[in-house]
Amino acid sequence: MEGVRRVPYRLPRVLDAVATGETVLIVEGEKDVEAVERAGEVATCNPGGAGKWRDEYNAFLHGARVMVVADDDEPGHRHAADVARRLEPVAASVTVWLPATGAKDLAQHLGMGKGLDHLRPFTPEVKAPSDWDPPTPLGRETRPPVFPAHRLPPYINDYCVGVADMLQTPVDLPCMLALSVLGAIAGGRCVVEVRPEWREPLNLYTTTAMDPGERKTPVFMRMVRPLEEAEAGEVAAIRADVADARARKSRAQAQADKADQDAARASEEAATEAVHFAAQMRLMADEIVVPPFPRLLAEDATPESLASLLHEQGGRLAMFSDEGEVFNMMAGRYSSAGPNLGVYLKAHVGSPIRVDRKGRDPEIIERPALTLGLTIQPAMLAAISGIHGARGRGLLGRILWSVPRSRVGTRQVETPPVPEPLTERYLREMRVLYDSLKDWTDPVVLVFSPDANRAVLAYERAVEMRLAPGGDLSAISDWGAKLVGHVVRIAGLLHLATHGRDGFANPVSADIMGDAIAIGDYLAAHALVAFDVMSMEPVLVDARAVIDWLAGRDAPEVSRRDIFCQFQSRFRTVAALEPVIDLLIEHGYLQKCRQERPRGPGRPQGPRYMVNPSTRIS
């Protein structure tokens, strides 16, 4: 029904089961669900029957243990395979099963007196029809995993999923911003010690590539709110002191100005004493320091002004931007000197920054800690890779990339707001963490438990193998070589977010290190896609966007008009779309339909294309 949101069957019971760690069975129909419930287990199914599972249902099963039980026929096998594929990136585990021989579905299986232990394991194989060959890939796989939100502390996971569900945006964006918010709170206040001589600061650079119309700004407003409220509180607390200092300095400067004027008018006999007095008054005025208003956040500052802001704020600052203008600043768009990357390179690792400018005192920042939380349009990836020195000097390797799949075209309307308790807890817990760290001047040192240390060593070995020639990270070794350090930072942030005020009193556990490694695996998959897009010709980037849309659309045919209307922001004319369609036909994603000549007057129908079934189920 129009205006009514469709959700999986028995959703409240399913959510309770996920929260308590029970296994959830996914079956094909309500009859099977009710049979499972009579057996004392938890089950659900999607509305509409086989082939109708939607990606929006995945959020309800974040972190769940899932058993998919297929009806024992070809549509049932395909449906189970599709559900398992969609859930694998978000669920804790997914297995696929068939009923006992002779039973068509799970209800019949249970009616025969069989239990769940009599189910048959099933390894689905999804094949395209024989007249279609698998398409030739356009570069690397373009559908990397969904952010494993269940690896975040529960209050952050719940809030991120709630924001994503309300705004119908990929859950990746609020999760990436949550990491940056944590980095802004802890950066410069804490470091994590992996072993002697290896410490990592906790600030992060994150960048999420998303198309226009993805509701990025509302997500930013909700996720960054703890920092905005903390900054407002700090400003309010110091406002009276700033006003007092300004008044005292203004009065002292006026007195120094008057002393200067008196010295200029003094007689020759009194000049020496008058000049000395004027100099003393000027020194007294200069010694009155007006404290700057505290800043936690900045947006779109040039590298030069960013360095000054870092100096003014004691080395700690965060930049959040939903337009990606920061990269234009890095590229030197507003400077005749060209790219200026030094402040971004040093502020990521905490190396001292010294800025010398003519006519001004030097600005020295001993331990800078800059955090970035940015979004860009995917088309900007190629432009970013073209910034002189960005890759060669290691800037791109310092950024955690996310390239989530768009939900535009499949979004629900009239979605419920984020429950108020989730919002309140997110704001409260983030504020508790901020307040527990804000007064630390020397960084708190977090350490790893022995089990967590062993997990770090094992992960280092695994990443090193991936960096070797022929490994999947060998082509982006500049990024991959920093992966373990990124994961260690994330582990420190998850630890602090989990333990709040007591985080620095306990070692980082192996479980939290495991959560950080899972997030690191997600980031590695997305970095591969991001760097792949950076090196692509524009027509390939456009073609991959069309493929992703076709996969989500899940229809056997598409018209040229359909594609053009969906991507008018990319293709100003139909002629600009033609090279993309030609490429998709050449690689086997599309096949032109036969069209009969129209009878009678009227314009002929535009071309239509059959869609390779492998595209729709890949």
Radius of gyration: 30 Å
Q: Provide the structure class.
A: alpha/beta
The separation of the N and C termini measures 29 Å
Total number of beta strands:
18
- The CATH architecture assignment of the domain at 11-121 turns out to be 3-Layer(aba) Sandwich
Our estimate of the beta-strand percent is 5-15%
Overall body shape: elongated
Strand order of the largest sheet: 2-1-3-4-5
Helix content: 40-55%
Quote the CATH topology of the domain at 11-121. Dna Topoisomerase Vi A Subunit, Chain: A, domain 2
Low-confidence stretches: 126-130
Structure description:
The chain has helices spanning 11-20, 30-38, 74-87, 106-111, 154-167, 172-186, 216-223, 225-265, 271-287, 303-312, 325-330, 342-349, 380-385, 420-437, 450-467, 477-480, 483-499, 510-534, 538-553, 560-566, 574-586, 613-617; strands at 23-26, 42-44, 65-69, 93-98, 120-121, 190-195, 198-201, 205-209, 297-298, 316-321, 353-355, 363-365, 369-376, 399-402, 444-447, 557-559, 590-592, 608-611. It is an alpha/beta fold. Among the domains are: 11-121, Dna Topoisomerase Vi A Subunit, Chain: A, domain 2 (3-Layer(aba) Sandwich); 231-287, no CATH class; 538-617, Winged helix-like DNA-binding domain superfamily/Winged helix DNA-binding domain (Arc Repressor Mutant, subunit A), CATH 1.10.10.10. The strands form five sheets. A five-stranded mixed β-sheet has the order 2-1-3-4-5. Strands 9-10-13-8-14 form a five-stranded parallel β-sheet, sandwiched between helices. Strands 7-6-15 form a three-stranded mixed β-sheet, covered by helices on one side. Strand 9 (297-298), helix 10 and strand 10 (316-321) form a beta-alpha-beta unit. Helix 5 (154-167) packs across helix 14 (420-437) and helix 6 packs across helix 17 (483-499). The longest helix has 41 residues, at 225-265.
